[in-house]
Amino acid sequence: MVTREQMEFLRSIDTPTVCNLVEIVAPERRGSGYTVRHLHCPFPDLPPMVGFAKTVAFKAKDAVPLGQAGYMQKRLDYLDYVAGEPQPGIMVMEDLDGEHAGYGAFWGEVQSNVHKALGCLGVVTSGSIRDIPMIAPGFQMLAGSIVPSHAYVHVVDFGIDVNVHGMAAKSGDLIHADRHGAIVVPMDKIDAMQASLDALAAREAKIIAAAKAGGGVAAIKAAMKA
Q1: Is 60 left (phi over 0), alpha (psi -120 to 50) or beta?
Q2: Residues 6 or more apart from 92 whose CB is under 8 A from it?
Q3: E strand or H helix at 12, and its extent?
Q4: 33-185 architecture in CATH?
Q5: CA distance 215 to 220
């Protein structure tokens, strides 16, 4: 679905630039498809991650409603889903606890290492994270909050449509994320996005140069018109 060259292009730019390019090639996407609330990013210096959404809904405030044996089978099936194609994966996880979202952390030392071993680059979640110093090296995390306990955290469903801080995502969507947040990338527009990059950079460079040159409002207006 996505070529190696397209993935390399996306990894070479940050998420705000991806948003700018999507606005150019798919103007109907200007106000949707990306996270619109703050997400904690404990590893802001990691490069952008580009991968396919592994979608999950979960809860943490209340105990698992299934019997222990039944839930164990769900956990095993969940691991098969995470490890399956397409790869690499990015976990996109919606916390269903409503006003109590973030009550318990799904993510910590154990889960980051498990998911990294199964091909995942990181997670984007409206839930919480913990164990920051012990997270698997290179595993990126964007989360709604940071808490010390996992409480009764458990998977409710996976491979479903989710919404994480305003970003609606389906299983298999292409996700771009960094310290700024995350966006669903329209896979059929990647080539057009790449073709638009130079012109976008040139326009921004002219305005920035005018601002730094000290020519005042007239120079900045002229650069914007040009």
Answers
A1: alpha
A2: 53, 54, 55, 56, 123, 124, 125, 162, 164, 167, 169, 173, 175, 182
A3: none
A4: 3-Layer(bba) Sandwich (3.50)
A5: 7
CB neighbour class for 205 (10 Å; exposed up to 12, middle 13-18, buried from 19): exposed
When computed from its CA atoms, the radius of gyration of the chain, rounded to whole angstroms, is 20
Structure tokens at 86: 């397409």
Domain ranges of the chain: 1-31+186-226, 33-185
- pTM of the predicted structure, to 2 decimals: 0.95
3-state secondary structure of 109: helix
CB atoms within 10 A of CB 56: 25
Q: For residue range 67-116, list pLDDT tens digits in order.
A: 666 788 888 999 999 999 999 999 999 999 999 999 999 999 999 999 99
Contact assessment for residue 150 and residue 105, using Cβ atoms and an 8 Å cutoff: yes
**Res 19: pLDDT:** 98
Say if residues 197 and 10 touch (Cβ distance below 8 Å): no
Is 35:165 a contact under the CB 8 Å cutoff? yes
pLDDT at 165 over 70: yes
d(CA 180, CA 96): 23
81: Cβ contacts below 8 Å, ≥ 6 apart: 54, 158, 159
Count the helices and strands in the chain (H runs, E runs). 6, 10
**Peptide bond before 88: cis, by omega within 30 degrees of 0?**
yes
Three-state DSSP state, 176: strand
